[in-house]
Design brief:
By secondary structure, the chain is α/β, with parallel strands linked by helices. It has a single domain, classed as Glycosidases (TIM Barrel), CATH 3.20.20. It is built from five helices and six strands; from the N terminus they run E-H-E-H-E-H-E-H-E-H-E. It has helices at 37-54, 88-104, 134-151, 171-177, 202-210; strands spanning 2-6, 60-64, 111-113, 158-165, 186-192, 216-220. The protein has a six-stranded parallel sheet with strand order 1-2-3-4-5-6. Helix 2 packs across helix 3. Keywords: Glycosidase, Hydrolase, Lipid metabolism, Signal, Sphingolipid metabolism. Its EC number is 3.2.1.45. It holds the Pfam family Glyco_hydro_30.
């Protein structure tokens, strides 16, 4: 398995998306959407090399860190900002376009997450980020992302929700599974290990007890993220 950023992430050497525009410009129909050198000369060749080495396919989990700044309430890739509701459809089509561009270049994506660390909106973030509440994510997945994937021929692409620390489990998953529209599109719940020392692992047991058919997948862990760590 491997994790694939949709656009730039906090480990990227520059902040970028696939539809960055001058301040004040918008592109609701994504006419200026384009993969970047990072995709063409780094990510895809690495995926191809790993696939060749294994002589088998790799299950890729793709995650978006931020929408283009013109789609967001704060007009920035980083900071405290959310997706403007007027662009909920455009953002779903943006994800579809990413999958289609990668497919055209021979790379199939096994699953996507609805958003990397949606709770980043709770505090000012210095990395690429975009905030969601669990209710908003349920509405967007059920009304926009899931239908857009189906309509574009990506109905088999799995959708993992949360993609954040386990502090908000099982409540986050419950919000998605209790929503009639989003429930049918949720394939699993993605978790990060940060702050695990504050939250007992029993929340994973409780999540599994309530939703035994929903896989729990750890998608991100790293060291050195705290100021006191070298």
């Amino acid at each position: 398995m491997g994790r694939l950023p949709i656009g730039g992430c906090d480990f990227s050497t520059r902040p970028y998306t696939y539809d960055d525009l001058p301040s004040g410009d918008t592109d609701e129909d994504l006419q200026k959407f384009a993969l970047q050198p990072e995709d063409l000369y780094h990510k895809i060749p690495l995926i191809e090399a790993a696939t060749k080495a294994r002589n088998a396919s790799i299950k890729l989990v793709a995650s978006p860190w931020s929408a283009p700044s013109w789609m967001k309430t704060n007009g920035r890739i980083d900071g405290k900002g959310k997706l403007k509701q007027q662009y909920w459809s455009s953002w779903a089509q943006y994800i579809v376009r990413f999958l289609a561009e990668y497919r055209q270049l021979g790379v199939e994506v096994w699953a996507i997450t609805a958003q990397n660390e949606p709770s980043q909106d709770l505090s000012y973030s210095i990395i690429n980020a975009m905030g969601w509440t669990m209710e908003e994510q349920a509405e967007w997945v059920g009304g926009y992302l899931g239908p857009a994937l189906q309509d574009a021929g990506f109905g088999s692409t799995k959708i993992y929700v949360l993609d954040d620390i386990r502090l908000v489990l099982p409540e986050w998953l419950h919000a998605l599974m209790s929503n009639n529209a989003s429930r049918g599109f949720v394939s699993g719940v993605a978790v990060h290990w940060y702050l695990d020392f504050l939250v007992p692992s029993s929340v994973l047991d409780e999540t599994h007890r309530q939703y035994p058919d929903v896989p729990i997948l750890y998608t991100e862990a790293c060291t050195g993220q705290w100021p006191w760590q070298p």
